[in-house]
Amino acid sequence: xxxxxxxxxxxxxxxxxxxxxxxxxxxxxxxxxxxxxxxxxxxxxxxxxxxxxxxxxxxxxxxxxxxxxxxxxxxxxxxxxxxxxxxxxxxxxxxxxxxxxxxxxxxxxxxxxxxxxxxxxxxxxxxxxxxxxxxxxxxxxxxxxxxxxxxxxxxxxxxxxxxxxxxxxxxxxxxxxxxxxxxxxxxxxxxxxxxxxxxxxxxxxxxxxxxxxxxxxxxxxxxxxxxxxxxxxxxxxxxxxxxxxxxxxxxxxxxxxxxxxxxxxxxxxxxxxxxxxxxxxxxxxxxxxxxxxxxxxxxxxxxxxxxxxxxxxxxxxxxxxxxxxxxxxxxxxxxxxxxxxxxxxxxxxxxxxxxxxxxxxxxxxxxxxxxxxxxxxxxxxxxxxxxxxxxxxxxxxxxxxxxxxxxxxxxxxxxxxxxxxxxxxxxxxxxxxxxxxxxxxxxxxxxxxxxxxxxxxxxxxxxxxxxxxxxxxxxxxxxxxxxxxxxxxxxxxxxxxxxxxxxxxxxxxxxxxxxxxxxxxxxxxxxxxxxxxxxxxxxxxxxxxxxxxxxxxxxxxxxxxxxxxxxxxxxxxxxxxxxxxxxxxxxxxxxxxxxxxxxxxxxxxxxxxxxxxxxxxxxxxxxxxxxxxxxxxxxxxxxxxxxxxxxxxxxxxxxxxxxxxxxxxxxxxxxxxxxxxxxxxxxxxxxx
Length: 688
Fold this sequence. Notes:
The chain is mostly helical and 688 residues long. It folds into four domains: 292 residues, Rossmann fold, CATH 3.40.50.1110; 67 residues, Tetratricopeptide repeat domain (Serine Threonine Protein Phosphatase 5, Tetratricopeptide repeat, Alpha Horseshoe), CATH 1.25.40.10; 82 residues, no CATH class; 134 residues, Serine Threonine Protein Phosphatase 5, Tetratricopeptide repeat, CATH 1.25.40. It has 27 helices and eight strands. The strands form two sheets. It has a five-stranded parallel sheet with strand order 5-4-6-7-8, sandwiched between helices. The longest helix has 33 residues. The radius of gyration is 34 Å and the shape is globular.
């Protein structure tokens, strides 16, 4: 049977692409390559710059070298906001948060400017530190952290930027925002030397790009060129306060286009900050802002372009003369004429407030003083329009508004905050910061956001003694304020260079504070030296206070706990000494025993032995021996504890080890004889 041959198939030729199609493909590849080349270049440049460590790390946190279980605020953080002056504003350098949070942790962040930062006290004198003290008394079973991210001279751009930058790993349960005084002259604000433009979109884009090393390289290059051609004044070398460097001769009239632009930027930045926090599950509290209304005259009068200034000044001088003669009606009449000529100058309203106050018309005085503050052409104090915006944003976004301004008014004569609670134009004194902390604490506690407090209300005395602001802190604050007010706008001219600034006939506390202010010693060293000075002078209460200040600010350092316990033992306050060291041991446990204080275990055990409480002493002394097996003294004290507990065989074994290691150890031979005597007394009872 023959097979049928299948017909041969002709091979199918693949048609070659047309010249037009090949050209189009090549063009597409060319375009992709042309796009990729700059992308790959900048990606490669960015990776290279990161590899060589170029630029500045502008992240919020850094690992705390002294206690790697914690984060501290990045000292470079403030450089984000000062591109021109290269200013590095102070941060809360002792504030720290734990990396691995315990279940009972509750974390709060504070955002804002210099008042929120606690200027001029900072550290334990800030409202955030005082708030922490109060909340810990109300919630003793919670691990309360209050971290202050506020910085002097920053505007709401910084508040928005920091709210955006908070990550899920470190985020708090609550953010407190107290900001508004720096909306004109603060970093990146519309009337500031540190402005990079009045476009809010541009400024926020700039802040986003700052984290790229390539952008930092570009910025540094532009700054170098501008400095080389002389387009940037080298203001950072001038002996001037930060206020002067940011704002001199930059007056903003009430109701001007620039004024309204600043208000709108503030509103939108607040809204963004709240929404960034909400997206991350962070609650927010805003607060009304307060300043010195009663005792701070307006810095600058602004006149309209059409004002007959000489005529206005003539009537204003007449009003001043009538006030001196106590002819208040004539003075008010002259001021009405001033306002008819020009409604902008703030001084006329301030004088009007003084007149109404003298006549006992508190409501009219209140309105006049606030109008004077609002019309001040040098806008270092937030106008009431900003407080209006705070309330409107709080209502619209469903965010509580803490009545800080209202609390200050309630504690001021005539409801006009002045030198009773203020140091100068807007920074509270210590009582003011305490009031501020109380006001925030009340809102937090009443809302039960942390949980049920141990009591609805506690006496102030429970927590006031723990605020821990000491004489050296007060001296440092006085120095800061004295320097601030030694130049413009409080006085004509600039202050002396900081290193040349001093005080006449300084006390020991002021000498230490000056050394700290001149950056010769750290804040911690200032307090350690103060404590040692008081110890040498046998001023024990003050020495204790210095130690407690260090413990509050630097709780991860065992040294102040140990020094405090030594002072208390010397004063025979054994229970307090034990409590201080047990507080450290709680922190040690929280830190996973990364830092261990053998002294704490040994000292607690020794004090319990001294108090004839051997059962409580034994666990501490056992731990002390474990930590330092060659410490003969700890072993001997443990032997004493066992002997007091009538566990004589363990006691004898330990004291024999002591005698082998150190035959002449004081009291060891006597203790051994005492133990053997008791064992011999017991042995007949055990003999049948």
